[in-house]
Design brief:
alpha/beta, 6-stranded mixed beta sheet, 21 helices
């Protein structure tokens, strides 16, 4: 047996906070070594933080990472663990995203990332350069390139994030060259349901290449991109271990690398593929001999046996129900996004929400409270402030709902009427317009802008993080006010569809029993900027609105195709009405792009959202002729 204990760390880093990031890394490294971990891996770019965006173009940003890597090597020199750490290096004019192998006080080698994602929220090819097959350079007297690392316990094959997402990535040639334990340092953002995709991908790669794969993912939120952490250990396609998500720390498990090599000898398909690779002229990846530098201590390791003591029977099923898993993951991700923005910017002392008594602001408050409960469990409400700003259109029911949930959560609640200011602003608008009348939409927008202005005034003096509360569905069709409810420092649910907002609130109502949630849900959704205003009556039913958004913005269907899909999805609605909904959505969507570019930074929880700098890059000035039938 060649038993190896693999430790997988999740570290919540801040971009550019090199010293603080390294302190977190060192703390976990020491704990791993004390736990007899043989190989400990940390996420991608764990020293500099991820994503660094264009900061990587500053020489100083890159150069300051190397001293921290050397400090890590010095301070772990006495530990009997091999560590793999994510670091950026500047080499001959190139910026390389590397996995650094460190042991016995030395940086033994650097392996650069080869696959650079430039899709969805990623722009890596803009700033980073690629490693390549056969790369063999030297950086600061350290081997840099396409290398394996041979230790007394086995052969290590480091790689970085996207390298595992390609079937033709470096993993193929490295395992054909003798790599047994592939360690992938990753920064894969949270996306709804995506953890299952990661798990399946790693199992597939481990089976395809007949190797053991250890995968460590980044944790924390930086600029609205949320990383859920966690990691996997899979041996030749068999799931071995999964580490906790949404929390900093490490988890470890033991594998027998003799099993990996034995399965290679038994797998005729793998052997045939290997022979074909050799016949095509595949060049072996060189292995750096590290056996003289580092000697592992594995005498305390025991053979990995199932906790339920059966190799034939399944263990206890610890999976959560699908509804709970989705809701808890989304709520954890958004709470992490709020908390990290609040803490890492170091600009705020308290969190403030304009609470309307409606669904969106309620969910935003509950997410902020979820974070506050984690950092101030004894009094989470002390970190939050809620403001209810009624006008003549505000109902007693919404005020009661807002006041009730604030009381239940222990959040200080203030009522600040805007009626007098509303009258003044209407008078000024009439004066400016002269003979031209003030429109009904303007009357609505005046109220929203007054509320936003007051929240900004509070924020300036209180050091408050003003949270924007709008959802993705209404934002997509411009059912929002520039300078009003579109305002805030951080848009918490701007990428959460309205149907998901309601789904989450139903779940939270069942879980918590809060009366305030029940009161909010008892009233039809509407902004209360006019008499008896109901959102679905002014727009369309929210399930249809969300379907239009997904099909048009996500699947890129033109209106005629959109109607066909809607007809299949909503057979109970007459086709003419669906045609009207589709036409209305596309018209509003395209004419509302100018609003999106003025909205605050938003939290990302999926591949489809409206952040122009990240995922939905659409021109502001655009015609709509292309949406008509050809």
């Amino acid at each position: 047996m060649r038993l190896v204990k693999v430790g997988i760390a999740s570290v919540n880093t801040t971009v550019g906070a090199f010293t603080r990031n390294m302190e977190r890394v060192l703390t976990l490294a020491r704990k791993m070594a004390a736990d007899d971990v043989t190989v400990g891996l940390f996420p991608e770019q764990v020293i500099g933080g991820y994503p660094a965006e264009d900061l990587i173009q500053w020489q100083g940003f890159v150069d300051h990472q190397w001293p921290e890597l050397e400090r890590f090597a010095r301070e772990t020199a006495s530990l009997s663990t091999v560590f793999v750490v994510g670091v950026a290096v500047a080499h001959q004019g190139l910026r390389l995203n590397c996995a650094a192998v460190v042991a016995s006080g030395q940086v033994l080698g650097l392996v650069p990332k080869e696959k650079l994602p430039t899709y969805s929220i990623f722009y890596e090819a803009r700033t980073w350069s690629r490693g390549y097959p056969g790369m063999a350079e030297v950086h600061r007297d350290v081997p840099l390139g396409d290398y394996l690392f041979r230790f007394d316990f086995g052969t290590l094959a480091p790689e970085v994030c996207e390298d595992i997402w390609s079937a033709d990535g470096p993993q193929r040639r490295r395992t054909y060259s003798g790599g047994e334990l592939v360690v992938n340092l990753s920064a894969s953002p949270f996306r709804i349901g995506f953890v299952d995709t990661r798990r399946e991908l790693i199992a597939t790669r481990a089976a395809d290449h007949q190797c053991t794969i250890a995968y460590a993912n980044a944790l924390g939120s930086n600029d609205g991109i949320i990383f859920d952490g966690g990691g996997f250990l899979n041996q030749n396609g068999r799931h071995v271990h999964e580490t906790p998500r949404f929390q900093e720390g490490y988890s470890a498990a033991v594998v027998d690398l003799d099993r990996t090599m034995r399965l290679r000898t038994e797998n005729t398909t793998w052997r045939g593929d290997y022979e074909a690779w050799v016949a095509r002229g595949g060049k072996p990846v060189p292995a750096l001999d590290c056996t003289k530098v580092f000697q592992s201590k594995r005498d305390k390791l025991t053979y990995p046996v199932p906790a339920h003591r059966s190799f034939f029977l399944p263990g206890p099923d610890q999976r959560r129900p699908a509804r709970e898993a989705l809701c808890e993951d989304v709520l954890d991700a958004l709470a992490l996004g709020v908390g990290d923005y609040f803490e890492k910017t170091r600009a705020f002392k308290v969190i403030g929400i304009a609470l309307s008594g409606g669904r969106d602001s309620l969910l935003t408050l509950l997410i902020a409270h979820r974070y506050a409960k984690k950092v101030r469990p004894e009094n989470p409400g002390s970190l939050l402030r809620a403001f209810y700003m009624p006008s003549r259109y505000s109902s007693d029911a919404t005020r009661d709902a807002a006041e009730t949930i604030s009381r239940e959560l222990g959040v200080p609640f203030q009522v600040i009427p805007i009626e007098e200011a509303f009258d003044r602003e209407l008078a000024v608008a009439k004066q400016m317009l002269g003979e031209q009348p003030v429109t009904a939409v303007t009357e609505q927008n005046v109220q929203a802008r007054l509320r936003a202005q007051r929240m900004w005034n509070w924020s300036n003096s209180a050091g408050g993080l003003f949270l924007q509360t709008g959802n993705m569905s209404e934002k997509s069709v411009g059912y929002t006010t520039i300078g009003g409810d579109l305002m805030g420092a951080l848009a918490v649910i701007a990428n959460v569809p309205k149907t998901v907002v309601m789904y989450l609130l139903d779940y939270l109502q069942e879980k918590t029993g809060y009366e305030g949630i029940k009161k909010v849900l008892a009233k039809p959704a509407g902004p209360e900027l006019a008499h008896n205003q109901v959102g679905e009556e002014e727009l369309m039913p929210f399930p249809i609105l969300d379907a239009c958004f997904y099909l048009f913005a996500g699947e890129k269907l033109v209106p005629a195709e959109l109607v066909q899909a809607l007809t299949a999805m909503f057979p109970e609605v007459e086709p003419a009405r669906l045609q009207g909904y589709a036409d209305k959505f596309v018209r509003l969507f395209l004419q509302s792009i100018y609003k999106w570019v003025q909205s605050p930074l938003s939290l990302h929880i999926g591949n489809l959202d409206l952040d122009r700098e990240r995922a939905m890059q659409l021109p502001v000035v655009t015609g709509s002729e292309w949406t008509k039938k050809a």
